[in-house]
Amino acid sequence: MSAPQAPQPTVLDGIVAGVLEDLAVRQATISEADLRAALADVDPPRDPMPHFRGPGSSVIAEVKRKSPSKGELADIPDPALLASEYAAGGAGAISVLTEQRRFGGSLDDLRAVRAAVDVPVLRKDFIVTEYQLLEARAAGADLALLMAVSLPGARLAQLHDYARELGLTVLLEVHDEDETARAVEVGAELIGVNARNLKTLEVDLDVFGRLAPLIPDDRVKVAESGIFGPQDVERFVGEGARVVLVGEALVRESGSGGPREAVRRMTGITR
Ligand SMILES: O=P(O)(O)OC[C@@H](O)[C@@H](O)c1c[nH]c2ccccc12
Questions:
Q1: How deeply is 101 buried, as exposed, middle or buried, from its count of CB atoms within 10 A (0-12, 13-18, 19+)?
Q2: How much distance in Å is there from the Cα of 40 to the middle of ligand 1?
């Protein structure tokens, strides 16, 4: 008889393992008390919800250099400049990937972007500890991503509540029915459905339409990943999205008008 097989580690497991190693290094250098002290000097959080609840669709435009699924996407020597173009195009918020190993980002990118724009800024990372939320706010983040898949049981509510105490708006990301129910249950105001399965990296644009009806209409529904043009935005808005989160299509944009016009084309679409 063969022994039961241990489950294969997923792509996500690999990413989180690297994130935890890097986190341990930072924690050995900067104490939680230091971060708490830094909160006193940081700009107060900006609230993205009025814009997201306003008329027409909003875009969260992402600063993303590379990804495990696509490899190198764009150089982005000046993230603040790119974010300024996004904001000028009408982005409701800017997402900054701060994960270093697989996405090529950093908290320095986030600080630079936050100083350059007037719109709220999201820390997009693999957040599994309170320390990372403190770090996010101390660096100026207004929103933080939490992923239901990475936060089993009571951890989801614990981190969600802690983020709110810090004044952060949580973008709570889900990928299936069970995660959606958990997100609704913890009271998340902003729920993102990721079309990309982070365990396999496969994109399925039908996931939003399947999960959106399970999210009450008093929450703001966000469609994430695999959005390349206004026709994709139209589709998701038709299925109940108020906000779309776009990375690759915008960082690759080099046509006339660049990222600014690309954001503009995707903004304000109504049902
Ligand atoms: O580049 P895209 O396909 O437009 O996707 C953006 C965003 O949805 C994606 O970067 C993302 C969504 N959830 C995440 C969680 C971790 C890292 C990255 C992500």
A1: middle
A2: 31
DSSP letters, 83-127, are HHHHHHTT-SEEEEE---TTT---HHHHHHHHHH-SS-EEEES--
For residue 6, being part of any structural domain is answered with no
Supply the residue whose CA is at minimum distance from atom 7 of ligand 1: 225
Q: For 212-243, how does the pLDDT look when each residue is reduced to its tens digit (9 = 90+)?
A: 999 999 999 999 999 999 999 999 999 999 99
Domain that holds residue 130: 11-266
CB of 227 closer than 6 A to ligand 1?
A: yes
Please give the distance of CA 135 from its chain centroid, rounded to a whole number: 16
CATH of the domain at 184: 3.20.20.70
End-to-end Cα separation, the chain, in angstroms: 58
- Considering the domain boundaries, does residue 232 fall inside one? yes
* Cβ pair 81, 115 in contact under 8 A: no
Q: Quote the DSSP letter at residue 5.
A: P
Instruction: Give the relative orientation of helices 258-266 and 79-88 as an angle to the nearest 10 degrees.
Output: 40
Is 236:208 a contact under the CB 8 Å cutoff? Answer: yes
pTM: 0.97
244 lines ligand 1 (CB under 6 A): no
Residue 5, domain member (yes or no): no
Residue 41 domain flag? yes
Decide if the complex's ipTM is over 0.95. Answer: yes
Q: Report the alpha-carbon distance of residue 261 to residue 227 in Å, rounded.
A: 15
CA–centroid distance, residue 7 to ligand 1 (Å) = 25
Give the whole-angstrom CA distance, residue 95 versus residue 101.
Answer: 17
The three-state secondary structure class of 94 is strand
128 lines ligand 1 (CB under 6 A): no
Report, as residue numbers or ranges, the catalytic residues. Answer: 62, 64, 124, 173, 194, 224-225
Q: Which SS3 state, helix, strand or coil, does residue 122 take?
A: strand
